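Ligand: arginine. Inputs:
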Amino acid sequence: MSTDFKSIPLIDIGPLLAKCDDPDMGEDPGVAEVVRQLDRACREAGFFYVKGHGIPESLIKKVRTSTREFFKLPYEEKSKIKMTPVAGYRGYQRVGENITKGVPDMHEAIDCYREVRQGMYGDLGKVMEGCNQWPVNPPDLKPIMEEYVSLCTGGSPNEFEGQRAGDPFWVLRIIGYPGASKANGLGTPENDIGCGAHTDYGLLTLVNQDDDITALQVKNLSGEWISAVPIPGTFVCNIGDMLKVWSNGLYDSTLHRVINSCPRYRVCVAYFYEPNFDVPVEPLDVCVRRTGGTRKFGRACYGEHLVSKVQTNFVE
Ligand SMILES: NC(=[NH2+])NCCC[C@H](N)C(=O)O
Ligand SMILES: O=C(O)CCC(=O)C(=O)O
Ligand SMILES: [Fe+2]
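Predicted complex:
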């Protein structure tokens, strides 16, 4: 929300993808153009659509189809993988269980996180230790999501990623938003909030949303909510709190929320590409220079940030 943007830009990252393993990519004019567009979008909106990302459309659709099938199951079935602190906060939450800024959200979800083995990050990672809880039904949900996570995570280490996200953490939220009239019998407006205004926590979020329902909204500098209308074949991308710190605020982690005012059920699968769990995150010198020479943030740590969020997302 750094500017008064009225729409969210669409960027074809195809030329960047084509050169991602080429050591001379820095000299390629097509790559330079994509980078200019990304930099501008991150400064102006903190949100952009990407196409030309190389993830097969068939898989993207299967991710949503199996999600919809799972949420159609009766509560007794879904609650077999109920999220608990003992499971490292992984698993199913029913509508109203996720809390944003003290208000229950009108969505249900399965939260998945990269596996954290015992002692992997010492005391810092204790709370997140555990492996994902996958449902038995639909049986293909687990393999589909695992393939999806592996493609979204990718694996092209360069200088930035090597030190800071060469061993990236990731989060997958498999989310369902009941249709407007079903969320509550009374139609009270405060209950229509599928997910309250928040920023994402890490580096970059890839939103895979239903093609035919507009519900995600992004806040601009004047406080207007700009809809991220679905564009088939694209991801909606937005930057997270850690990238804001690394960029010294040159890029902002933009506030967004979800309101499903459509009578139909909406599904969304959000993949969060995150820094290394335990890396110190501080403004980069190059970004401090570009933002007037003053450091705006002290040292942060993604793992600490995640743990504090997770613990307040589910207080009863
Ligand atoms: N991991 C997420 N981005 N979760 C959705 C955001 C809502 C969450 N309850 C929060 O307060 O931030
Ligand atoms: O449902 C959406 O479109 C976005 C969800 C979201 O913002 C989140 O889970 O962090
Ligand atoms: Fe979000």
